[in-house]
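Priority: low. Protein: S1 motif domain-containing protein. Input follows.
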Amino acid sequence: MLSLSSSSRLSRRPSKTFPQNKSSSVSPKTIVAAVAMSSGQTRERLELKKMFEDAYERCRTAPMEGVAFTVDDFAAAIEQYDFNSEIGTRVKGTVFKTDANGALVDISAKSSAYLSVEHACIHRIKHVVV
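Result:
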């Protein structure tokens, strides 16, 4: 096995064990891979690790710190754009994607609407060019 200290310039990857032929009585071989890293890369990895640990601790202890709005503000904004979604309700929207069977329409709601070809026109549509 490869033993490395934390200040070593080698980074140990997980070892893989491959069994020998089943009829063989020899123990399995262990393959160990090591990658050389410069001291700049090591320092950068340690800085990133520290930054992520600090961010995790801030999220765990003060998750709303630095947020410019409250949960109530967010709920009010969602309610402002809430629509009555009963069948038959007419709404205005903008087509942003089409396919052979219909179109996706942005209706400024929480989700988009799908308008099928059959409902897009009072006349029967035989072919749609996309």
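Residues 78 and 110 are 8 Å apart (CA to CA). The beta strands are 10-12, 16-18, 29-31, 34-36, 94-99, 102-106, 113-116.
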